[in-house]
Amino acid sequence: MTSFNLTALTMSGIKFEGPVTKLVIRAADGDICILGKHTDYAAPLGCGTAKITTEENKEIRANVEGGFISVQKDQTRIIATKFDIIE
To answer: Residues with Cβ < 8 Å from 17, sequence gap 6 or more?
Structure first.
């Protein structure tokens, strides 16, 4: 599967950064799935659990509240009010 770079940050700094193969996250109007080579996209975020799949096929989950997502070429950015990795 094609990977892409994901950066997730809040006002307190970078919460996640690295190459991933899949991101499922709640936008304001419902869940979206971002894969490699996704078309350019921007949307406000809702509240929910993001599911990140790394290149090693490991799933990372994070609680997300508000903010927005931006996809441009092979770079996806999440700028969130809250982004907390679930351990």
So the answer is: 5, 6, 7, 8
Three-state SS at 49: strand
**What pLDDT does residue 87 have?**
86
With 0.85 as the threshold, say if the pTM is over it.
yes
**CA dist list (Å): 81 to 41, 64, 67, 74, 85:** 19, 8, 5, 23, 13
**Residue 40 to residue 29: CA distance in whole angstroms:** 17
Q: What confidence tens digit (pLDDT) does each residue in 30-80 have?
A: 999 999 999 999 999 999 999 999 999 999 999 999 999 999 999 999 999
- Residues, the chain: 87
Question: Whole-angstrom Cα distance, residue 16 to residue 13?
Answer: 9
How crowded is the C-beta side of 47, counted as CA atoms within 13 Å? Answer: 3
